[in-house]
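Thread title: Can someone regenerate the structure for this chain?

I was given the following input by a collaborator and told the matching structure tokens would be attached. They weren't. Posting the sequence so someone can regenerate them.
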Amino acid sequence: MTLAEDDNLHLMELMGIIRRYLLSADHPFRSECLRTTYGLFLLELNAIQERTIRDRRFPKRIEQLFFDFLRLVPIHFTEHHDVGFYASQLCITPRYLSQIVREVSGRTVVDYINQMLLMEASYLLQQTSLPIVQIADRLHFSEAASFTRFFTRMKGMTPREFRKGK
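Best answer:
Regenerated them for you:
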């Protein structure tokens, strides 16, 4: 997605705030501030995406299904990694949901789910001392090995390497 200059500057400003909290190890509410600022960043990104999509003029039903999907992902991504779940929540077929998401955003349903999983995994690895096995369980991976394969494929390093390199 191509961003307007003012949207780009706003998102960069939010990323700067997130970076400052990441680097300030002595802040008493660091974790809470990071989570809140990160949530704000995602909401702003979602708002920009909504404006961009509305400017492209998709039929109202397709827009509504896409935005409903976007609202479902942050709520259910830790428990449900499959297209079928989201399609059933929207009372449409998995194929139709995949078609809508690709048409509107140029991305796949799995891309959205994986990005949320990766962001949450990265957060948990950096901000908690939970063992990797517990993080894998919290994100509903069948076993720690499949979580490690997923994380390595998405991030280019193992969860353990990522945690050490923070």
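The mean pLDDT is 90.
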